[in-house]
Amino acid sequence: MKRWTLAVGMLALVLSLGLGMARTTKVVVAGWGGESEIAMYNELLKKFNASHPNIKAEFMHIPAKDYWTKITAMFAAGKAPDLFFTNNINFPALASKGVAAPLEPFIEKDGYDTGIFYQGILNAFKYEGRLMALPRDISNLVVYYNRDMLKEAGLPDPDPSWTWDDFLKYAKALTKEEGGKRTQWGVSFYTYFLFWEPWVWSNGGRWYSPDHSKFMLNNPVSVEGLQFYVDLRWKHHVAPTPAEAADRSAYSLFLGGKTGMIVDGRWRVPSLKKKAKFDWDIVPFPNGKAGSIVDIDGSGWAMSRQSRHKDAAWEVLKFLAGPEGSLAFTKGGLIIPAIGFDPKNPEATNAILKAFFQPPPPRHQQYFLTVNKTAIPTETFERWSEAQNLINKALGPVWEGKESVKSALDKIAPQVQKILDEVQAERKK
Amino acid sequence: MSKRKRRIADAVIFAVLLLGGLTMLVPFLWMISTSFKEPGSLFDLPIQLWPEKLHWENYQRVLTAVPFARWYFNSLVLALGLTFLNLTSGALAGYAFARFSWKGKDVMFLFSLITLMIPAHVLIIPLFIIMSRLGWIDTYYALVLPGLFDAFAIFLMRQNFISLPRELEEAALIDGATPWQIYWKIALPLAAPALATLGTFTFLGGWNAFLWPLIATNSIEMRPLTVGLAVFNTQFTTEWTVLMAGLSLATIPPIIVFLAAQKYFIRGLTLGSLKG
User: Fold this and answer.
1) For residue B49, what is the DSSP state?
2) Contact at CB, A267 and B236, closer than 8 angstroms
3) ipTM of the complex
């Protein structure tokens, strides 16, 4: 009798355990971030788990340093996380290995509306025409300017419709010379590509043809745009030369009141708020021949093809990238949300915008969002970093004023084109 | 005259040593001074060598915002476990290579040396696959056991045992000692300086390891300090003051190990030089 009850009890226990296990699906989300960001993830996923009793979502933190090594190892071992955080610049190289699952089937099945995200950032996460990730945040560029310095030079706040000529005029007026030595410059000078690609695009140029089959950075329009930027330093002398900057970074020159303007990202706001000893504001990048086009890059979550619980992973993905997740990350002051105002979801999207707008400065924070309408992502592809290394190397003498943009880029054009040809051949396979 | 010459020579040597000592010490002092600075003030100009007010909140934050004690414990498990395993396996294998002979011994020794030439990065992914098949990922096994055998440890111990006088061991053999007794009671105590040196190296190696512990652990709780503290170093910003507070606390065990082992390996060094 006793043994019999025990057997029934055991059976019931095993059954209930089995059922319980079948009911909760574990979804692992991998990402990088500081400890405040880890806390945001944990809190968000706790909320998700509470409202989805049959899914258990977990955050796996991987430090940004060596993030990709660890992700690669996990994929190689067949133990990839169900969702993984990625930026759009590293993404094509990864996607070409077939590790990410296209999201269209889930979007169609669900009737999910991707219209809440800015189109530019969605495009940044497309690989071979298919959407591979839902975006979380955006990084773009605006012009920061020192209002006190403008006032002193008798210049009004620049209008968002300003042109490259206006920009040059401002830069010239802000440059000061004393005893044959420049002591103040119109604009800080970055040589890192993210900061100067707007000069190429806004002039109507491109780096590559849209299908990445042709190198176009050495085309006349592209070269003209970049040369305009280089001329700020070497022809008009409104940006400090390396010798003049003397180891001071582009940003520290602006922060120290040595330059009047800088083309930079949203991440400078906390530091400027705390440390700038002058009044400052932002304005969109000046209009070239093709308008004002800055880069819209960013990060988001992709679903791994190895995931055994794709439907559950999709639910988690929607939640993290959707209004609730976006609001949590935006509130922390961490990001520019990838979700803009959506007339179909006025309440939820408005809450995100409200969280984004913190007390000024800058007075014109909306420009961080309005520039997204025309912005385009950095033109990356599978072997982008190889081509980028060639370009960076070639431009070295250009930044030092020793070579023209045209001659430097023409020299490496055949090598870059060879990489592109190989990429095309690889894709056809 | 020669006395004066020697004095000048001494002065030069002291100046060089002092300069060398300072270059070693300055980064260390800078770390400690940074750990007491106001968060975010590190790059203020003019440079502050020492903060006017000690900001203990960096320490408070590193001790409370993250599972610092657990990370510390994990680092100790990793470094001590690795040291223990390496000393054991290195001494045993080294002794065998030094004193016994068997068919294929030289080939085996050669192969163990060849493993030194394989870069660690190449091994990471196969090792991760093995560990995850064993189900050891995110456990102490995966953290420590891949370092069980190290060709460098075997090599170092072998060279050391070869240099010991054979006569002592032969005398013990005549007295009827077993090979194990000879190893344990005669050879190993004589190898103390080498063991101290190897132990210090291995401990430091384990204490500073970053890439493998990062790959081998998934949860925040299983990380050693190196990987854990990386949380203060994010994509756009690094919380230098908090990071340095954590690092200042993290340098204590290696210093203790060094001080404890120092008398052995300095003796080892001087013994060698006297002989020469």
Assistant:
1) S
2) yes
3) 0.76
